[in-house]
Amino acid sequence: MIKHNKALQATALILVAFIFSVAVRMIWVYKFSDTQQFRYDGTFMLTTTDGYYFAEGARDIIKETNHIEAQAYRSPTTQALSQLTAVLYKILPFTLDEIMFYMSAFFASLLVIPLVLIGLAYGSLTFGFIAALVGSVAWSYYNRTMVGYYDTDLLNIVFPTLLLWSLIGAIATKHDRYILFIAIETILYRWWYPQSYSLEIAFICLLAVFTFYTWFKKRDNFYNFALIIFMLLSTLNIDMIYRASLMGVLLVFLHFKKDIFRKYIYYILGFSIALFFATGGLNPIISLLDTYIFQRKAIIAQNILDLHFFAVIQTISEAQHIPFETFANRISGHTITFFLSIAGYIWLSINKKSMIIAIPMIGLGFLAIYGGLRFTIYAVPVFAMGIAYLIIQLTNTIDDIRIRIVSIIVLTLLALYPNISHAYNYNASTVFYKDEVATLNKLKSIVSKDDYVVGWWDYGYPIRYYTDAHTFIDGGAHSGSDNFPTSYFLTKPQNVAAKMIRLEAKYIEENANRIKNSLMGKPDKNRTNSSRIANMTTDYGFSDTNDFLYSLSTDISLPKMTNDVYLYLPFRMLDIYPVIERFSNIDLMTGAQKTAGFYYYPAQYKQNKEAIIFDNNMMLDKATGVITVGKNNKFKVKRYVTTNYTSNSKMEKNIQLAHDDGDLSIIFMQNQNKFIIIDEEKYNSTYFQLYVLDNYNKDLFELVVYHPFVKVYKLKI
After folding, report:
1. Among 94, 109, 142, 181, which is most exposed with the fewest C-beta within 10 angstroms?
2. Number of domains forming the structure of the chain
């Protein structure tokens, strides 16, 4: 009867915590309910770029797109999130966009289940309930699971916290059912998020340390060894169906032939370890460390040519080092709460030794200091339990039950306040605005599914989702070698840009066809697995890529046009133009970064009769046409350009020459109230000429979609 009542209480608390978690995430919906630029066709759009990757996969599953075709063009029809979304679409009475937008709020809130269950396992539902409230809305967890944040993060912390609960139960009870739970949770976690490998291995290593410690103490470790075996086998780097089958056979064997299993436990353990290393072992972990910790400065693509590319990891904010205060706030909401949570976790681990098993989650969370803010969410549930335990232990010293309850409520609200305050003030925007999506939908009626719509990789996934066309680069294909050609044609003059676009389209399509043939069992052995720019260089008879790039300014022969290519040029690209330029502003033969030139896009300015004063200590003298940067650096202005869009969205521009020997051009975009100050090379780049100035070569490009914030051109050669 007591167990039954505890189960009912736990269920009720889980429900309350779940509703609370969802309600906090609905604050954003309430705040922006009238912001029409965040909606398209009446539905809010996604708030994370990567969400459109999985959106494309869900859409293609629903459309029953050919599997080989989807794989060749990087549609994630095999990804768990896309598959789950497609299933929900078929059973729920909502549109695909509605499901994707709200999905994270509901699934991420499932975190409250294992937290309350851990509280139940430790004999304090109040402790578990407080941890569920705090953990479900903690700063970084909220950021990565808010409405519209359609990404694998919506279950990435739920699964390891469930695994933690099962490990705690296994250590405490040594019951076979927890081995079953752990096997299922590990297999599902890997299905959901293949990168879970490192955390699973960390759990195994910690369990192994504990097991061998007790083994030397002459204790019976059969159960712990069995647990390690099942965890090792469930993490094998083989297809999920084979892992599940192996687990099923072993579980049946363990249940019905436990004596034999015990007799051969060391042989089975040795076999499991050997199989673990034979199927890949630590390779995925080494790869992740290389990406997020060592962060190579350049990537060398070897084979027919050894070329040096700029590494994209250096430009991704979530993979950069973060200040300690940001780190602490993202885990616990406030630095004070952070340190109190540490104290609570230590106290909890002293009293409940099995909580030490949570160290891998803390370690992965602390990796954020070096590997970027994305990792902080892993420490959130553990630190939530730390502050919850501290609250319970401190208030247990209060004899008066009413004062104790009030104290628990007050302290819990204090822990929640910075996190809820952050959620209320977190004004995240949708990835695209309504007008931008409208242009993509207009473009969808123009392009065919075999065409390419080309923009910077940040926009690749949304472009593919809304136009159903292909792209050159996106959030999953943006290595230095992938980005070089796109960076090159965006930042170089139109004549060489057009040739690079045509060549890149040909080589991208060639690569897609190779993937198709490989999936059909017909691999192409005639083409080496080199970068596309390396293949272009050698195919045109050069051994030096610099010579090949120079040849683009000459009358070289181009491949026959088999796919139409459209160039997507948005206003928002102005913010990241210098980053885009870095990928092609490099000597590929040596890796030497070239001079960046001058680019300034001031956030604010003020002016008087004599001068325009920009931020960062920069000033334009109107009378002399000279820009002063700092105290001593002076540059002459070559030309002043003013652009303005009329009521029917047509551009009017005024160009005034200042100094023939000037260094810089000043462009004032009147409608956006923005200044841009650039050197001559950037002024003549394809992006600035086509988007900012409407000055395109009609022999090379055709304007097909026109909007002040987005312009799309079709390649004509």
Report:
1. 94
2. 2
Q: Which structure tokens are listed for 173?
A: 């009870």
Q: What per-residue confidence (pLDDT) applies to 528? A: 61
- List pLDDT tens digits, range 533-563: 999 999 999 999 999 999 999 999 999 888 8
3 C-beta neighbours (distance < 10 Å), count = 7
> How many whole angstroms separate alpha carbon 112 and alpha carbon 118?
10
Mean pLDDT of 505-531: 81
Domain hosting 604: range is: 599-715
Confirm if 283 and 453 have CB atoms less than 8 A apart.
no
Tokens 């966009």 sit at which residue? 97
Report the DSSP beta bridge partners of residue 565. 452
- Report, in this order, helix, strand and coil percent for the chain, each rounded to 5: 60, 10, 30
The answer as to whether 536 is a domain residue is: no
Q: For the whole model, what pTM was predicted? A: 0.90
| CA distance linking residue 49 with residue 428, whole number of Å | 12
Q: Which two tokens stand for residue 580?
A: 């885009």
| Cα dihedral 358→364→368→372 (10° resolution) | -140
Domain annotation covers residue 242: yes
Mean pLDDT, the chain, integer: 91
> Is the pLDDT reported for residue 293 higher than 70?
no
Q: Rounded to an integer, what distance in angstroms lies between the CA atom of residue 544 and that of residue 144?
A: 44
The helix-helix angle for 51-62 and 96-108 (nearest 10°) equals 120
**Closest to 150 measured CA to CA, from 54, 15, 268, 257:** 54
The neighbouring-strand residues paired with 705 are 712
The domain boundary residue, chosen from 356, 391, 425: 425
Name the residue with higher pLDDT: 1 or 136.
Answer: 136
pLDDT tens for residues 573-614? Answer: 999 999 999 999 999 999 999 998 999 999 889 988 899 999
Burial of 177 (0-12, 13-18, 19+ CB in 10 A): exposed
pLDDT at 157 over 60: yes
d(CA 268, CA 226): 9
- Asked if residue 490 belongs to a domain, the reply is no
Last residue of a domain, one of 388, 404, 425: 425
Q: Give dist(CA 478, CA 484) in Å, integer.
A: 9
DSSP character at residue 608: -
**Is residue 543 in a domain?**
no
Task: Report how far residue 131's alpha carbon sits from residue 152's, in angstroms, rounded to the nearest whole number.
Answer: 22
**Token code pair at residue 647:** 């009521």
Name residues whose C-beta falls within 8 Å of residue 219's C-beta, 6 or more positions apart in sequence.
none
Distance CA(337)–CA(579), nearest Å, equals: 37
* Per-residue model confidence as pLDDT tens digits over 366-396: 988 876 788 899 999 999 999 999 999 999 9
